[in-house]
């Protein structure tokens, strides 16, 4: 009798475990898995384009994997078990733990950068130098100052936080090569705050332990901002105002990152400009206005004593909250265009008629190929 009751209860439990998740499955389209930063699979169609969908069963399986009830809870539970019991993060993410559980963002490109397995040949470096020199000369002829700004990823400034299981070969990276080559073989203004960041990290968190692993901290951004402004001011009789630390309200806030529901507190400095004078005026974006607030910004500052218009072609290292709003405090107009449109530099210059162009490059997003395209466009214009 007891065994019969146990069998019935077991059957009821199995039925519950099978049916309830199915009944609670997501039935909405175009939802995203926030923790995984991707779209969930949509419900498959038996007929696709008038023909029988031969991948129907495979797509049903994918839909169940993504949408079955309680999936989010189970994903987070799995991530916590992996982290707390085995010291690992979900294999589906680009997040990896360092020797002291530091958070690292490691894509295949970053891995090659760290290992120095993608070094440039002398011929490639010569082509890169020629491309940037061509762009700089083109802008100089128009009376425009040009600055190449190199952002460094976390692994270059805090290599001690990188997983020790990864071997590194030599001491020179691809980015070291490019920066040195531009400094030695061109006359362009190269701003590379690597040493300043290394010096600052002795006393500050310029890259975080468990904060956003793909960017510098607010302190790191401030170090880069100061070096860039010093380079610009040295060419312009120190015309432009540079924000001092006393111009910010600096508070420690928890900026710890969340990965699949795992969150660790990381108290980092938050730099907020106490009395900002620059205003976002995105209605002035005449080119790529559809990207306003999404990688493109136009600032106007009526309080400065200059009429300088700065065009920045850059990525998220220069995004709002890190660099562009600081720079906007120094110039009459500051325009940030997402680096996706680097190869449209000539068109951007014609559209916005800047006095200064800042070309920012993140280490993991080498855009020398795009600059080669720009250089060829410029050479064709001169024919």
Give me a quick take on this structure:
Helices cover 38% and strands 17% of the residues. It has helices at residues 2-23, 56-67, 71-86, 108-115, 122-141, 154-157, 174-185, 194-200, 218-234, 324-327, 345-352, 368-381; strands spanning 32-33, 38-39, 47-48, 51-52, 95-97, 103-105, 145-151, 189-191, 248-254, 258-259, 262-263, 267-273, 279-280, 297-300, 309-314, 333-338, 356-362.
Characterization of this structure:
There is one protein chain. This protein is an alpha/beta fold. Helix content is 38%, strand content 17%. It contains 12 helices and 17 strands. It has helices at residues 2-23, 56-67, 71-86, 108-115, 122-141, 154-157, 174-185, 194-200, 218-234, 324-327, 345-352, 368-381, and strands at 32-33, 38-39, 47-48, 51-52, 95-97, 103-105, 145-151, 189-191, 248-254, 258-259, 262-263, 267-273, 279-280, 297-300, 309-314, 333-338, 356-362. The chain has a 7-stranded mixed sheet, with helices on both faces. Strands 1-2 form a two-stranded antiparallel ribbon. Helix 10 links the parallel strand 15 (309-314) and strand 16. The longest helix is centred in the first third of the chain and has 22 residues, at 2-23. The N and C termini lie far apart (97 Å).
């Amino acid at each position: 009798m007891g065994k019969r009751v146990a069998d019935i209860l077991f059957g009821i439990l199995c039925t519950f475990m099978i049916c309830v998740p199915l009944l609670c499955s997501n039935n909405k389209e175009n939802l995203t898995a926030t923790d995984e930063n991707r779209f969930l699979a949509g419900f498959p169609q038996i007929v696709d384009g008038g023909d029988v969908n031969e991948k129907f069963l495979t797509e049903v399986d994918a839909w169940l994997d993504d949408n079955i009830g309680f999936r989010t809870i189970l994903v987070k539970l799995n991530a916590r078990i992996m982290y707390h019991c085995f010291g690992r993060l979900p294999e589906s993410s680009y997040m990896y733990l360092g020797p002291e559980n530091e958070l690292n963002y490691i894509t295949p490109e970053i891995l090659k950068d760290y290992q120095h397995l993608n070094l440039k040949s002398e011929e490639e470096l010569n082509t890169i130098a020629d491309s940037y020199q061509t762009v700089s000369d083109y802008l100089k002829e128009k009376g425009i100052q040009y600055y190449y700004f190199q952002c460094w990823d976390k692994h270059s400034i805090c290599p001690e936080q990188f997983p020790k299981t990864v071997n590194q070969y030599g001491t020179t990276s691809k980015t070291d090569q490019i920066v040195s080559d531009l400094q030695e073989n061109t006359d362009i203004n190269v701003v590379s705050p690597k040493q300043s960041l290394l010096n600052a990290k002795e006393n500050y968190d310029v890259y975080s332990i468990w904060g956003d692993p793909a960017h510098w901290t607010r302190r790191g951004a401030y170090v880069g901002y100061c070096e860039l402004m010093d380079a610009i001011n040295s060419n312009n009789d120190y015309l432009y105002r540079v924000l001092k630390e006393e111009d910010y309200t600096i508070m420690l806030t928890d900026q710890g990152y969340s990965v699949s529901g795992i969150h660790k507190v990381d108290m980092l400095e938050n730099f907020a400009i106490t009395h900002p004078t620059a205003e976002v005026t995105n209605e002035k974006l005449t080119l790529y206005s559809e990207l306003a607030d999404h990688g493109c910004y136009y600032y106007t500052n009526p309080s400065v004593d200059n009429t300088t218009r700065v065009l920045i072609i850059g990525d998220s290292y220069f995004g709002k909250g890190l660099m562009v709003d600081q720079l906007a405090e120094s110039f009459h107009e500051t325009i940030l265009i997402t680096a996706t449109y680097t190869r449209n530099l000539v068109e951007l210059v014609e559209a916005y008629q800047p006095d200064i162009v800042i070309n920012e490059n993140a280490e993991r997003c080498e855009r020398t190929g795009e600059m080669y395209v720009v250089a060829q466009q410029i050479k064709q214009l001169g024919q």
